[in-house]
């Protein structure tokens, strides 16, 4: 029997932190509300904290988000990032690299779960193919925004991808200051 819970890595051990500003969170919630009852989706740009603090490689800071069209066949139950937007963003970020030690990159993506929880779905699990990427999931219903949870895709047993919950914290200072 298939149990989705088997693919959540150490649910009670939240060792990774996602730092994100309140303004970005509000923007993502607005996008989810605008798209409802369809799933919204987009890309998350930021950096791994290890670039600023060599001792910690689990933490990720989000500096911006980029909306994309949801190209899924059934956008009320799935999402598909627009590949043109994705490739254009990669090119733009590469051209703006500040140095070899620190640069902004796509660290993951966000999407909404209309009338569902912010837990990764079976569809999310089957689409998760790249380890160390962030999956920010916004639960939304006709009553408004529910939970917002961040998950990191990690290599699990037998090299299959599992989801590890991340702790979300508001950005208060930048490692660049």
Written description of the protein model:
The structure is a single chain. This protein is an alpha/beta fold and 177 residues long. It has one domain: Cytidine Deaminase, domain 2 (3-Layer(aba) Sandwich). 19% of the residues lie in helices and 35% in strands. The chain contains three helices and seven strands, in the order E-H-E-E-H-E-H-E-E-E. The protein has a seven-stranded mixed beta barrel. The protein is globular. The C terminus is likely disordered.
Which key terms come to mind for this protein?
single chain, 177 residues, alpha/beta, Cytidine Deaminase, domain 2, seven-stranded mixed beta barrel, 3 helices, 7 strands, 35% strand, globular, disordered C terminus
Tell me the number of strands. Answer: 7
The percent of residues in helical segments reads 10-25%
What is the CATH third-level topology name? Cytidine Deaminase, domain 2
Strand order of the largest sheet: 1-3-2-4-5-6-7
């Amino acid at each position: 029997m298939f149990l989705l819970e088997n693919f959540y890595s150490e649910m009670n051990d939240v060792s990774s932190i996602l730092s994100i500003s309140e303004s970005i969170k509000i923007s993502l919630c607005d996008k989810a509300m605008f798209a409802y009852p369809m799933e919204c989706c987009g890309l998350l740009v930021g950096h791994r904290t290890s670039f600023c603090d060599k001792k910690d490689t689990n933490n990720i800071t989000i500096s911006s988000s980029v909306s994309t069209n949801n190209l899924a066949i059934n956008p009320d139950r799935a999402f598909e990032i627009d590949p043109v937007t994705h490739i254009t963003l990669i090119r733009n970020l590469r051209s703006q690299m500040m140095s070899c030690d620190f640069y902004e990159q796509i660290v993951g993506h966000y999407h909404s779960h209309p009338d569902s929880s912010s837990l990764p779905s079976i569809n999310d699990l089957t689409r998760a193919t790249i380890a160390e990427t962030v999956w920010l999931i916004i639960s939304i219903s006709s009553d408004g925004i529910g939970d917002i949870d961040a998950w990191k895709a990690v290599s699990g047993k037998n090299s299959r991808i599992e989801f590890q919950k991340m702790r979300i914290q508001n950005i208060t200072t930048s490692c660049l200051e």
